[in-house]
Amino acid sequence: MKVALVQDWLTELGGAEKVFAELLKIYPEADIYTLVASPKVIKKLDITSHVCESFICHLPFARKWYRKYMQFFPIAIEGFDLSAYDLIISSSSSVAKNVLTHSGQIHISYCHSPARYVWDLCFRYLKEAKLNRRWSPMAFYARSVMHKFRVWDVIGSNRVDYFIANSNFISKRIQKVFRRDSTVIYPPVNVDMFKLNEEPRENFYFTASRMVSYKKIDMIVRAFAEMPDKTIYVAGMGPDFKKIKKIAPDNVKMLGFISDDEMKDYMTRSKAFVFAAEEDFGIVPVEAQACGTPVVCFGKGGVLETVVNGETGLFFYEQTEEALIEAIKKFETIEFDPKVIRKNAERFSAQRFRAEIEEFVHSVIKK
Prior knowledge:
Layout: E1 3-7, H1 15-26, E2 31-34, H2 39-44, E3 51-53, H3 62-65, H4 73-77, E4 87-92, E5 106-111, H5 122-128, H6 137-157, E6 162-165, H7 168-178, E7 183-184, E8 205-208, H8 217-225, E9 232-235, H9 241-247, E10 252-256, H10 260-269, E11 273-275, H11 283-290, E12 295-298, H12 303-306, E13 313-316, H13 321-331, H14 338-345, H15 350-366
Parallel strand pairs: 1-2, 1-4, 2-3, 4-5, 5-6, 6-7, 8-9, 9-10, 11-12, 12-13
Helix pairs in contact: 1-15, 8-13, 11-14
């Protein structure tokens, strides 16, 4: 079969890109289609297949600020001619699933989420962009673009033959937004990269994330400011880094960008990994568990499927400093078994992901 892989964009190395890299291992000869790609990411993912970008890559500063061209996403993704392919697999949290296909093709979409910025997080994005004033011309324009996008997005979802969701949490969201059933296949986590540590842990906590508002790193920092006897190391960069660094007290160590080896080192030595975001799946908490490190996390979203409360981590149920402080106090009264934590992480291995995807594709073709 002639195969095409479609990805929203290949501009940074996040969870979606890790999923795409595993799909490429299954179909190394596949052609690749994406709105815009970064040469650095192409190199890091070791992509040697043909990569076809949309016209958006030629717009000013598009490789960095491609989201500014959201109004062009529909016409860009529909501009790819995939008529020669037998099998199309899209990896989508935005528009990749909306490619045009014909009745002689099979289109499977691995859905990380319906586009958050126009559906469940629409009003949060408008507020953060200061576009929530009702009568502002720019706010009116932004709302108009989002409205048209939603209509087009529902229409586009009908072009998908089979949906795969990255968690039960996202499966419910797909049903809510698109009224479509989906099969759950958890994303791949390279657990083999992380070594189990059964030695006594050092006296610090660790968190790592892109510094954007919904990750709630500022909330974690404020909570630890109320616990001056406890230390946390905070890794990651992003738009909110400077703002968060300003409020960080001495017991909060802002690391900025760190390498993969440094990440593994902090994860392996820390008492716990702290995670306050509501994520669709959340690969990093699974990576922490692969080290035998328990996770103190906000009990909503994908972590409900990856963390076992009281065995491999501990949940708190409000995104507030008070709730996190109480969780840390409770955490320090519980004994966790690193072997049990590691075993839980192994459920999400990359080998398991590839096997489940291949089995799903074969079952679809057989039909």
